[in-house]
Amino acid sequence: MDQAPPQKSNARQPPQAPVRGSFWCDAAAHLSDGRMLWLGGQACWTTEQALDWIGWRAGHVADQLDDQLARPVRAWIQDHPEHQRASGQLARGITYSLVVCDGSVQFVLAATPGAFDPDGESAP
Question: What number of CA atoms fall less than 13 Å from residue 16's CA on the CB side?
Fold first, then answer.
């Protein structure tokens, strides 16, 4: 007796488990009224790529701030000892976040270990 061919399904298959050694980086602005504005994200494969992405987005945030508030953000971009500490933290599987406050807005730039899967889904 012949079997019918398997039917194709339009249902999305569940994503595979996150890839070990990957990182999901994202940026968000948290407003005082409780809203959150997502500013973008990127999958990265190394701690260096993740920190480069955070630095790149930190530069964008600094460009929008007045000089006094931008100064510590720009200092973070050049702070190699802090980058080494952050790299070690990420390598141990701990999320690293850079938080920048500007009055009623809090910018959060973060890298989360193991939160990226091959299907392109983030799992923060």
Answer: 8
Q: Render pLDDT for 8-65 as a digit per residue (tens, 0 to 9).
A: 433 333 334 444 568 999 999 999 999 999 999 999 999 999 999 999 999 999 999 9
84: tokens are 């080494």
Residue 119 — pLDDT band, cuts 50, 70, 90? low
The model carries a pTM of: 0.76
DSSP conformation letters of the chain: -PPPPPPP--SPPPPPPPPTT-EEEEEEEEETTS-EEEEEEEEESSHHHHHHHHHHHHHHHHHHS-HHHHHHHHHHHH-HHHHHHHHHHHHTT--EEEEEEETTEEEEEEEEET-B-TTS-B--
